[in-house]
Amino acid sequence: MKRKEIRKNKRRSSRRSTKRQFVPPRTLEEFFAMPDRDQEFWSNVGQAVTEVRAGASLRQASHKFDLDQRRIPQAARSALRKLRNGRWVARPNDRLLRVLVIPTRNGLREIGVPDFRQASLLGKYWTAVEQYRDTGDASALREFRGKHIIDAKREEIPVADRSPCIGPSGFSGSSFLRVTLREGGVMRKKLPQRDPESAWVRSATAARRFGVGAQCACGETRPEAFVPNSNPVICAACDRARRGKTTVDNHHDAGRANSPITTPIPVNDHRAVLNTAQYDWPKATLENSTGSPLLARAACVRGFVDTNAYLVDKLLLPHAEFCELLDSMLAEKLGPEWWLNTDLEQFAPNARPTSRREPK
Questions:
Q1: N or C: which end of the chain has fewer CB within 10 A?
Q2: Could you tell me if 277 and 203 are in contact, meaning their C-beta atoms sit under 8 angstroms apart?
Q3: Which residues lie closer than 8 Å to 295 by C-beta, 6 or more apart?
Q4: Averages of pLDDT over each 10 residues, the chain, 360 residues
Q5: Residue 193: per-residue pLDDT
Q6: How confident is the model at residue 47, as a pLDDT?
Q7: Do the bridges between strand 98-104 and strand 107-113 make them parallel or antiparallel, or are there none, so unpaired?
Q8: Which pLDDT belongs to residue 127?
Q9: In whole angstroms, how large is the CA radius of gyration of the chain?
Q10: For residue 245, which phi and psi values (nearest 5 degrees)?
C-alpha cells in the first residue's frame, strides 16, 4: 500500500512540475500575453544571461536578479552551456527574445529582437545615438545608414541615421527628442565604456522590467534606482525615507575586495551611476579573488576615475551651467558687455590690472 501511495505522489508531483514549466516567449505578442510575473521573470533571465556573458558566474547572476539558479538554464537553453568543470557560460549567440526600445520616425517603439546579435546591433546603434547626443558627432550614426534591425517576426525595421528625421538638435518631430536627447537640458559627456553594447542591453532590459517612461513620485526615472517588484514604482531613496532609514550609502570606490575606503553617496546615484559603472570593469579586477596587489591598485585607479567623474558631474558642472545661464540673462537685460564699469570687470579675460604698480 505504501509503495502505491509513493508512486501516486510521484506521478502527481511530476504532473505539477510539467504544468508549472515555463515556456519562453518567441514573439512580442506572446511576451505581452504572459502574466506580469512571467514577464518579469523572463526579463530577469535575459539580464542574467547578459551578466554571465560579461563574465559573472551563474550563481552571481541569479543572486543579483533574485532568481532560482536552476531555472535559468531551463528557460535559456539556447543561451548557456555547461563546461566540464560544472561552470555555466554563455554561448556566442542565443535565440532569446528580448523586448527593447528603438526610435522610429513616429517616436519610441518597443520591439522583440530574436537573438543576441540583433540586440547587440541595436546596442551599438544606441551608443552612436548617445555619442551624437553628448558630442554632436554623427559619424557613428552615419554608419547605420541603410541598416535595419530584424525583429522576432523577421521584419526589417530601419534605424534612423542623420537623415531627414534627425535634425541638428535631435530627432525632430518625435518624442525621441524629449525622451532621449535631453537629460535635464544639458548633456553630460560620459566616460567611454569597455563594452557599450552589453551595458546598453543591461540598461534597456532593466528599463523593460518597469516599463517605458516609469517614474517614481519624486521624479526619479532611472530604472537601476527603482526598488524591484514595487507597484507603484518607487525609488530606493523614497522607499528608505518612508521607512525612516538613511538615504545615503557608503560606496566602495575600488570594490569591497580591493579596499575598505568608502565615499558617502546618495542611494539612487549609488545604484544607478557608480554600481553600474563597476559592471563595466574587468571581472578579475572587481572581484580580485586571488588578492592580487596589482589588481587592487588597478581597481583603485578605476574607482577614482568613476568617483571623480561622478563628483565633477554633481559638484562642478552645475556651477558652470549656472554661470552660463546667468551670463545669458545679464546679457539680455544689460547688454553683451554687462560687466563693464563694475567690480567684475577685473575678472574679464582681457581686462588689464587696475593697479599700475610694477611687480617686485
A1: C
A2: no
A3: 258, 284, 285, 288
A4: 55 48 87 85 87 86 85 91 92 89 75 89 84 80 88 86 44 37 39 59 69 86 87 93 95 95 96 89 88 96 94 91 93 93 88 52
A5: 58
A6: 83
A7: antiparallel
A8: 83
A9: 26
A10: -105, 165
* This prediction's pTM: 0.55
Nearest to 313 by CA among 210, 155, 150, 188: 188
CB-based contact 246:277 (threshold 8 Å): no
Which grid cell is 356?
Answer: 599700475
Cα angle, residue 64 at apex, residues 63 and 68 outer, rounded to 5°: 35
Set of cell numbers at residue 245: 532609514
Contacts 24+ apart (CB under 8 A), 72-75: 72/45, 72/48, 74/21, 74/22, 75/22, 75/24, 75/41, 75/42, 75/45
129, 112 Cβ separation under 8 angstroms:
no
Name, in order, each residue with C-beta under 8 angstroms of 354's C-beta and a sequence gap of 6 or more: 346
* Contact yes or no for 46/96 (Cβ under 8 A): yes
| pLDDT at residue 308, rounded to an integer | 94
Q: Which residues contact 127 (CB under 8 A, 6 or more apart)?
A: 140, 196, 197, 200
Q: What does each C-alpha distance from 195 to 91, 139, 154, 191, 205 come to in angstroms?
A: 17, 19, 27, 12, 16
Backbone φ, ψ for residue 146 (5° rounding): 85, -5
